[in-house]
Design a protein that fits this description.
The complex is a heterodimer of chains A (469) and B (378).
Chain A (H helix, E strand, L loop, with lengths): L8 H9 L11 H64 L3 E5 L5 E4 L1 H7 L3 H4 L8 E2 L11 H11 L3 E10 L2 E15 L2 E11 L1 H63 L2 H36 L7 E4 H18 L3 E6 L5 E4 L1 H18 L4 E9 L6 E8 L6 H4 L11 H7 L5 H11 L3 E7 L3 E9 L9
Parallel strand pairs in A: 8-10
Antiparallel strand pairs in A: 1-2, 1-6, 3-4, 4-5, 5-6, 7-9, 10-11, 11-13, 12-13
Helix pairs in contact in A: 6-7, 7-12, 8-9, 9-12
Chain B lengths: L1 E8 L3 E2 L11 E7 L8 H9 L4 E6 L3 E3 L2 E3 L2 E8 L4 E8 L6 H12 L4 E8 L6 H10 L6 E6 L11 E3 L2 E3 L2 E8 L3 E8 L3 E13 L2 E5 L2 E2 H9 L15 E4 L6 E4 L1 E5 L4 E4 L8 E6 L2 H19 L6 E8 H7 L3 H11 L4 E8 L2 E4 L5 E4 L3 E8 L1
Parallel strand pairs in B: 3-4, 9-10, 23-24
Antiparallel strand pairs in B: 1-2, 1-7, 3-7, 4-11, 5-6, 5-24, 8-13, 9-13, 10-25, 11-12, 14-27, 15-16, 15-22, 16-17, 16-21, 18-19, 18-22, 20-21, 23-27, 25-26
Helix pairs in contact in B: 2-3, 5-7
Classes of the chains: A alpha+beta (469), B alpha+beta (378).
C-alpha cells in the first residue's frame, strides 16, 4: 500500500495507523470517523502552514519593495549628483562646448558657447549652426565643409581640428576660432558629436605682435649689417689709400739705407742710419697692421677671394722658414721644421696658407723666449678625405683655459696688457681661422699656461667645392 | 546477538521475568522515568540479575517501548553479543565549561582499531551538549559512529540522572564503546520543522538570549511573522524554533524558544545563539514532524545495511517533539518502526538533546529531532 502511486505518503500512514489494509472495502463506521478526523487535522495544519507562508511571503515582498525603493532613491540621488557635477564642469569651461546629434543639430551648449555665438541657448538648441562657421585647418588653403567633416568624424570615430576657423556673427565682427569636432561615443556607436570652440582672438593678436617684432628686428639687423658693410668698405678703401704713401715711405727709407751703405761713411750712418731704420721699422709695422685690417674688412665684407692652385708643400715651408727664422733668432728660440715625406703637393690657396702659417709662427716667436718652436707637417689619411696637419708647437707663456674660447674672435688678445707688451692688432688668429675655413679646413688650439701652446691647421688635400660666393 | 526487551512499571513491576543472559558481553540499556531516583528497587534487581553485564541508562521525558510511549516506567533492552566486545567508561561533569574536555577524555578512553561506534548518555542539565560532542569528535576517526542523548526530566528541567554501570548518579556522562568486525551500526536523524522566511543575521545576542535579527528587535520580528499565532508565545514557542545555519545552508541546528521578554523584545532559547550567526525561522507541522521520524527510520535502515538476525533500534526523540505532538506523539514511534527492518525491536526515550552524525560524518548535537541508532550483529 505504501507503494501505491495514488495514495499520498501522509494518507498511507494514516490508513496504516487505523489498520485499513484493504482499500476496496469500506472500514467500520468508527474507523471511518477516525480517518475523517485525521484527514481533517491534516487539512487544518496545511491551512495553518499556508497562513504562515503567506505572511512570510507578504513580509518578504514588503522588505523587497523597501529595498528596491531605497536602491532606486539612492541611485537617483547618485545620478543627480553626478549630473550636477558634469554640468558644473561643462559650465566652468572657458571654451565653448556644443553637443550635436549625428545630423549636426544642437542638443545643448554651455555658457561660453552662448557668449561666443552671441545667442541664448533657446535660440539655437534644435537648430543647425554650421552655416555660422568657416572651417579651415591651420595652414590649409581649402575651406572644409562642416557637414562632411561631421560625417567623417562619426565614420572614423576620431576628432578633427580646424585651427584657422572663423565664426560669422550678424552685426558684429567675425571671430577667429579653433574648432574641434569629436565623436560622442556611447557603448560601441557614435550618438553625436562634441563641438568645441576655442577663441583664437588673443592668440592671433599675440601672433601679429610677434610678427611685427620680428619684422622690426629684421630691419634693425639689416641696417646694422649695411652699416657694418659700409664700415668695412670704408676701411678697405682707406687702407688702400693709406698703403700708397706708406709704401713710398718704406721704399724711400730702403733707398736711403742703400745710399748710406754706398757712401761707406760711418759718420753718416751714425747720424741718420739708426733714425732711418726706425722709420723703416715703424712703417713696416704700420703696413702689417693695415694689411690685417684690410683682410678682416674683406672677410667681413665677403670680398676675400680664394685662389686654388697646386703647389709643393716643402717649397712653401722653406719660404715660410726663410721669413720667420730671423724673428726666431731675435727671441733666442730654437726653430725646426719637420715634414712627413708623404706630404707633397697640396691644392689650396698658397698665399692664404702661407699667411696663416706666418701668423701662427710669428705669434709663437713673439710669446716664446729662449725656447723651442717646432713646425710639424703630417698627413692624416684615416677615414674620409685625406688632410694635411700643420702643427705649430711652442714652449712659450701659454694661454689660460678661460681665454681659449674667445681666442679666435676679432680684436681679442689674451688681455689688454698683452697687446701693450707684445704689440699686434689681435687680428692675426681671426684671419688665420677665416682663411682655414675658406679652404675647407679649420684651426684648433691646445695650451697649458706657462708651458706652451699647440696650434693645428687642418686642411683637405683636395679643396672642397666652393660654397661661398 | 541475543536481544530481549523488558518493561517495568512503578505500579505494576516487571512485564516479564528477566532473561538469564548475564555475561561479560551483555549490555543492558535502561531508559527510566525520573521518579526511579526515589525508588531504586527495580534498578537493584537489574544489577542483581546481570552482575557481569554492563548496565547503562538515563532518566527521560518519556519512555519509548515498541510503538508506545510511557511515563513512570523503565524501558529495558538486554543484548548479549556473540563476538562483539563492549567497553564502558564514565566521567563526571563538574561544570558546563568542561564538557569538551570530558568528551575528549571519553573518546580517548574508548578509541581502538576496531571501534565501530560509541553510545553516549549524558546528564541532561549540567552539560553543554554541543561542547561534549565537539570534544568526542575531536579524538575520533570520522568513521566511528557516535550517537546518544541527554537525559530528560519530564517537562521540568530540574534534575536528571544516568546509570553508571547500574548505579544511579547525576552530573556524569556514561558511554559504551562497541567493537568488532561483525557488528553493524546504523543511524538516522531528522527534524521535520520547515524553515520559512528569508535567512537573517543575528545582530545582537547574549548566551541563549536573542535580542536582534538584522538590526530589528527579535520578538517584534517573530510576532510579525506569526501574526495572531504569536499570542500564544511562549507556550506556542515549541512550534516556532530557530534554525542556526552553518557554512552551507543545509546543516541545521534547531533551537527551541523557552521564553519571551516583552520589555526587551527578546527571546530566550534552549541553547546558545551566537552573534553573527545566520538563522532562519522554522515552523512545525504535525504531519511533517511524523514524516521526519519516518525519514530518520529510513536513514537508520539504510546505514545499517541488509542482514539477518535480531536488530535493536534506539529511538531518541526531543522532548520538544512530544510537547508539540502531544496526543499524536505515538504516531512518530509507529512511523519509525514501520520503516525499520522487519523484526526490529525498538526502545527509546524523549530527551533534552540528541547526539548523532548529521547526514554523515561529523557528530552533532541536535534539538527537536528524532534520532535513531540501529544495532545488529552478524
Amino acid at each position: 500500500m505504501k507503494d501505491s502511486p495514488d495514495i499520498h505518503r501522509t494518507l498511507a500512514r494514516q490508513l496504516r495507523r487505523l489498520g485499513i489494509r484493504d482499500l476496496d472495502q469500506a472500514p467500520p463506521p468508527e474507523v471511518w470517523r477516525d480517518l475523517l478526523a485525521m484527514i481533517s487535522r491534516t487539512y487544518a495544519s496545511a491551512e495553518e502552514d499556508r497562513y504562515l507562508l503567506e505572511r512570510s511571503l507578504d513580509i518578504s515582498s514588503r522588505e523587497m519593495e523597501e529595498l528596491n525603493d531605497n536602491l532606486r532613491r539612492s541611485s537617483e540621488t547618485r545620478v543627480a549628483v553626478e549630473r550636477d557635477r558634469l554640468s558644473s564642469i561643462v559650465e566652468a569651461l572657458d571654451d565653448g562646448l556644443c553637443v550635436l546629434n549625428t545630423s549636426g543639430v544642437v542638443q545643448r551648449l554651455n555658457g561660453a558657447a552662448q557668449r561666443l555665438l552671441g545667442v541664448d541657448a533657446e535660440a539655437v538648441v534644435g537648430t543647425k549652426i554650421f552655416d555660422r562657421f568657416i572651417f579651415r585647418g591651420e595652414g590649409a588653403k581649402e575651406i572644409a565643409d562642416p557637414d562632411l567633416s561631421l560625417a567623417a568624424i562619426l565614420r572614423l570615430g576620431q576628432s578633427m581640428r580646424f585651427d584657422s576657423s572663423v565664426l560669422l556673427r550678424k552685426g558684429r565682427p567675425p571671430r577667429e576660432l579653433a574648432c574641434t569636432l569629436s565623436p560622442l561615443i556611447a557603448g560601441e556607436s557614435c550618438i553625436g558629436a562634441v563641438f568645441l570652440l576655442h577663441d583664437m582672438t588673443a592668440v592671433r593678436r599675440s601672433e601679429m605682435e610677434l610678427r611685427q617684432l620680428a619684422d622690426a628686428l629684421r630691419t634693425a639687423r639689416d641696417k646694422a649689417l649695411d652699416a657694418n658693410r659700409a664700415k668695412s668698405s670704408f676701411l678697405a678703401n682707406i687702407s688702400h689709400e693709406l698703403r700708397t704713401p706708406l709704401n713710398a715711405i718704406i721704399g724711400y727709407s730702403e733707398l736711403i739705407s742703400e745710399e748710406i751703405e754706398e757712401f761707406h761713411d760711418s759718420s753718416l750712418d751714425e747720424a741718420i742710419g739708426e733714425d732711418n731704420r726706425r722709420i723703416h721699422q715703424a712703417a713696416d709695422h704700420l703696413l702689417h697692421l693695415i694689411n690685417d685690417v684690410l683682410d678682416v674688412s674683406k672677410i667681413e665684407a665677403g670680398k676675400m677671394q680664394v685662389e686654388i692652385i697646386p703647389f709643393e708643400v716643402p717649397e712653401l715651408l722653406a719660404a715660410v722658414s726663410a721669413v720667420i727664422e730671423p724673428l726666431m733668432n731675435q727671441g733666442g728660440n730654437q726653430f725646426s721644421v719637420a715634414c712627413d715625406p708623404q706630404v707633397r703637393e697640396l691644392r689650396s690657396d698658397r698665399t692664404k696658407l702661407k699667411q696663416a702659417l706666418f701668423n701662427l709662427l710669428s705669434n709663437a716667436a713673439k710669446f716664446t723666449h729662449e725656447g723651442v718652436v717646432r713646425l710639424n707637417v703630417t698627413l692624416e689619411a684615416r677615414g674620409g678625405a685625406p688632410h694635411v696637419i700643420f702643427a705649430v708647437r711652442d714652449t712659450g707663456i701659454g694661454i689660460p683655459p678661460e681665454k681659449l674660447r674667445d681666442l679666435f674672435n676679432a680684436f681679442t688678445q689674451v688681455d689688454a696688457s698683452t697687446s701693450r707688451v707684445y704689440g699686434g692688432t689681435g687680428l692675426g688668429l681671426t684671419i688665420t681661422r677665416e682663411f682655414c675655413r675658406m679652404l675647407g679646413g679649420d684651426v684648433e688650439v691646445e695650451s697649458v699656461l706657462g708651458k706652451g701652446s699647440v696650434f693645428r691647421i687642418r686642411l683637405p688635400v683636395e679643396p672642397p667645392a666652393p660654397k661661398r660666393t | 546477538m541475543e536481544l530481549a526487551l523488558v518493561r517495568h512499571e512503578l505500579s505494576a513491576g516487571w512485564s516479564q521475568e528477566l532473561p538469564a543472559v548475564d555475561s561479560a558481553s551483555t549490555l543492558v540499556i535502561v531508559f527510566g522515568a525520573p521518579e526511579y531516583r526515589d525508588d531504586s528497587r527495580a534498578l537493584a534487581e537489574l544489577r542483581d540479575a546481570y552482575p557481569q553485564a554492563t548496565i547503562i541508562g538515563c532518566s527521560t521525558s518519556g519512555e519509548i517501548f515498541d510503538t508506545k510511549i510511557y511515563d513512570e516506567s523503565l524501558a529495558v533492552a538486554i543484548l548479549r553479543f556473540r563476538d562483539a566486545r563492549i567497553r564502558h567508561v564514565a566521567a563526571p561533569i563538574a561544570s558546563a565549561n568542561e564538557s569538551a574536555a570530558t568528551g575528549a577524555s571519553i573518546a580517548e578512553a574508548l578509541v581502538d582499531d576496531d571501534l565501530k561506534g560509541i553510545f553516549v548518555l549524558s546528564d541532561g542539565l549540567q552539560v553543554n551538549g554541543s561542547e561534549l560532542v565537539r570534544g568526542l569528535a575531536s579524538k575520533l576517526p570520522a568513521e566511528v559512529v557516535v550517537t546518544g542523548g541527554l537525559a530528560g526530566d519530564g517537562p521540568r528541567f530540574e534534575e536528571t540522572w544516568i546509570l553508571n554501570n547500574g548505579e544511579l548518579v547525576s552530573g556524569m556522562v556514561t558511554a559504551v564503546g562497541l567493537y568488532g568486525e561483525r557488528l553493524h551500526l546504523g543511524h538516522g536523524s531528522k527534524g521535520g520543522w520547515d524553515p520559512f522566511g528569508p535567512r537573517r543575521q543575528v545582530t545582537r545576542a547574549e548566551g541563549n538570549v536573542l535580542y536582534e535579527l538584522d538590526g530589528r528587535p527579535a520578538l517584534a520580528l517573530y510576532k510579525e511573522y506569526l501574526g495572531e499565532r504569536a499570542d500564544g508565545l511562549p507556550a506556542t514557542g515549541l512550534l516556532f524554533p530557530l534554525a542556526l545555519l552553518g557554512e552551507g545552508d543545509e546543516r541545521l541546528i534547531v533551537r527551541t524558544i523557552l521564553g519571551v521578554d516583552e520589555e526587551h523584545s527578546s527571546l530566550t532559547f534552549a541553547g546558545d545563539i551566537p552573534s553573527g550567526a545566520r538563522v532562519q525561522l522554522m515552523k512545525a507541522n504535525f504531519d511533517r514532524l511524523i514524516e521526519g521520524a519516518e525519514e530518520a527510520g529510513e536513514g537508520a535502515s539504510a546505514t545499517l545495511g541488509a542482514g539477518e538476525g535480531p536488530c535493536l533500534a534506539l529511538a531518541i526523540s526531543c522532548v520538544g517533539r512530544r510537547l508539540v505532538l502531544a496526543a499524536r506523539t505515538e504516531e512518530e514511534v509507529e512511523a519509525t518502526l514501520d520503516v525499520l527492518p522487519p523484526g526490529c525491536a525498538q526502545i527509546g526515550f524523549y530527551s533534552y538533546g540528541e547526539i548523532s552524525p548529521y547526514a554523515s560524518g561529523h557528530c552533532e548535537l541536535h534539538n527537536q529531532t528524532m534520532t535513531l541508532t540501529t544495532i545488529r550483529e552478524g
